[in-house]
Amino acid sequence: MNRIIHTLGLSLLLATSVSIADTSASDDEWQFALSPMFLWGMSMKGDSQIGPVDVPLDLEFTDDVLSNLDAVFTVHFEARKKDWTLFSEVQYVDLEPTTKISGTPVTVDVTFKNTMVELGAARRVAQFEKTDLELLFGARYTKQQNHTKALNGTTLVDVKEDWWDGFVGGRVTTRISDNWKFEGRGDIGAGGSDLVWNLAGFFDYRFKDWGSVFAGYKVMDYDYDNEDYGPDRYTYNARQQGPLAGLSLYW
Question: How far is CA 250 from CA 28, 29, 87, 104, 210, in A?
């Protein structure tokens, strides 16, 4: 918790999650936005150490993630009033790749589940003719499950790990036209993680008052180590990145 407070006080940068708000409505009214159909075509590059076992996480979205994907979903929600925005996001990924243990010819089946829940707030601090600047802060909960077994069915690793990180960052929104806008967001944080940072940018097309579609790119990088020893050691040092796209609803 002390590291979370320290991070919230000292860090500032730019990062991700889709966020949308209806700027056509009065600032005195609550404005809501929901992205229930939000796809992040995530590739992963890095590794995870579980006890003495080093499991590589080197997956390309088109070649590896799609073929090994068991389940995935992301839901993002925002509520805005005047200069303040409250936001939340839930993301779940279940991958089941077959890979080799680093430095050995041993092939293993990996079940990797990642759940992320984000809660935060943003405040508009500057407004130009077509551009808004916001500062944001919040907390992010991450839960990972890694079950690794040999091809003969012998379980090598079975671990569950969860942690909290605080983050701070910024967001810029530029209205290109009545229907188009660009949004970029970034954050940096720590807590359970030694460091985690997140960057994203996307274009949004408003086709009706009640809906829009968006597309862009997102990068998220974790450096996590539970600092235990022996069989309880768990690290996750990986970069997740790829295109994102989805549908947003407004009311």
Answer: 16, 13, 14, 52, 5
CATH assignment at residue 129: 2.40.128.90
φ, ψ dihedrals at 179, nearest 5°: -105, -25
How much is the pTM? 0.78
And the tokens for 104?
């050995």
> Please, how many CA atoms are within 13 Å of residue 191, restricted to the half-sphere of its CB?
21
Rounded to whole angstroms, the Cα distance separating 125 from 133 reads 6
Tokens 């005047």, residue located: 82
Residue 85 domain-assigned? yes
The sign one gets for the Cα dihedral 40, 197, 166, 237 is positive
The total domain count for the chain is 1
Q: What is the pLDDT of residues 27-84, one digit of tens each?
A: 688 999 999 877 787 777 888 787 777 767 776 655 544 555 555 778 999 999 999 9
The answer to whether residues 71 and 92 touch, using CB atoms and an 8 Å cutoff, is: yes
